[in-house]
Give the backbone structure.
Amino acid sequence: MKPAIAVYGNVWPDEALQALEAEFALYVIARMAPSEAAAFYEHAAAQVRGILTTGTVGIDASLAARFPALEIVSVHGVGVDAVDLDALRARDIVVTNTPDVLTEDVADLAVTLLLTIARRIPALDRYVRGGHWLEKRPLRPTRSLRGKVAGIYGYGRIGQAVATRLRAFGMEIRYYQRSAGLEPMLRRESLAALAAESDFLVACTPGGADTLRAIDAAVLDALGPEGTLVNIARGSVVDEAALVEALASGRLGAAALDVFEDEPKVPQALWELDNVVLTPHVGSLTVEARQTMRKLCFDNLRAHFAGKPTLTPVPR
Ligand code: 8YV
């Protein structure tokens, strides 16, 4: 009998799921009508042995409890802050994620956002389309990146890939993370100290309880009216209300954000600000990254059900 797998999230192309159906009995929750989903939880969930989910959908303890035969949760994404690891581990359920394969593309987006906000590309695009060039409306210059300080919050794989790119623009790198990391001379003692030294603060840290709203009003004030926040990590890392307030009042210069506290809801106040660039959580959304993430996700399931070690288990 094919192992039964419940599939959450909407990142799975039809062809990929069709191919997977040769090996597994799939229950694609996002495609079920509410009545179908209710029947699934009542009758079929008890047989489900594996779950495919995304970094943002994850799985909490109450959902996991609906699957008494669950053996593995394969996460499509590197971040596992939406997965209740303690609840799953208490039941010896294997959890896998997709590290490394998205690092370069996520770092590319961080740098793209930094450049976009630094050079005010959205406003300049509106300037041309709005006919203001023809009107010879004056333009104010932007600031050069060369010699400016990029403070990286979270100096892991993605943070380091961002640093490599920003060094090529002549930027100085500093970082903060709780644990000692590579290049100890560049580490600052606190996030506020890092922000105070930085022209750009780039959040690359994992989400979760340890980093919840770590970028608060005090950190934003340390970054200051000439400073810019770039967030490609998790919305939960920033106190969003404090961010809106700091941007609207001019206490913070600008922000470029790919992630938000309550996605897909982006505070209306941010829509209306000119010193902000917004993207809809797309760091890993390239054909190449998504293909490799999907393959790794599926290969983790395959390995588990073939009785082999999984390829990328989330370290305990
Ligand atoms: C995805 C992510 O947007 O890897 C992560 O942690 O947030 C992103 O790559 C998401 O997990 C898609 O499944």
User: Anything to note?
Assistant: The two ends are 31 Å apart (CA to CA). The mean pLDDT is 98. The first strand starts at residue 4 and ends at 7.
